[in-house]
Write a structure and sequence with these properties.
With 119 residues, the chain is mainly beta. The protein is 14% helix and 38% strand. The protein has a single domain, classed as Alpha-Beta Complex (hypothetical protein yedk fold), CATH 3.90.1680. It starts with 5 loop residues before the first helix and ends with a strand.
């Protein structure tokens, strides 16, 4: 984890709900858009980090809250399309991710639970 996210990783982990994500493959001008879903899960969660930022030059500025999604190496299906994929946290691992952020949870979802289709 890079230094920019160290504090957020320690103290501000989150789950980002989704029902799909997209990846693109192919050459510029003829790229294919792929829709990726999780089998039998109409809703799932990405591992995320959140933080806030305030312009140091403006003490009256309203803080801006933002989040990022953590990525990992791709599984076998997505490896042909992209060099990384979002970390999808299994429902049984939601609480462990939020409570202690174990790095063992930052792994690709197995290929057999992924559905992928060109859109």
């Amino acid at each position: 984890m890079g230094i920019a996210y160290r504090e957020a990783y320690r103290n501000r982990r989150c789950l980002v709900p989704a029902n799909a994500f997209n990846e693109w493959s192919g050459e510029k001008g003829s790229k294919i858009k792929w829709r990726v879903t999780v089998k039998d899960q109409p809703l799932f969660a990405f591992a995320g980090l959140w933080d806030w930022w305030r312009d140091p030059k403006d003490p009256d500025a309203v803080p801006v809250e933002a989040f990022t999604i953590i990525t990992t190496s791709p599984n076998d299906i997505l490896g042909d399309i992209h060099d990384r994929m979002p970390v999808i946290v299994a429902e049984s691992e939601h609480q462990p991710w939020l409570e202690n952020g174990s790095r063992s949870l930052l792994r690709p979802l197995p290929s057999e639970v992924i559905d992928i289709a060109a859109v």
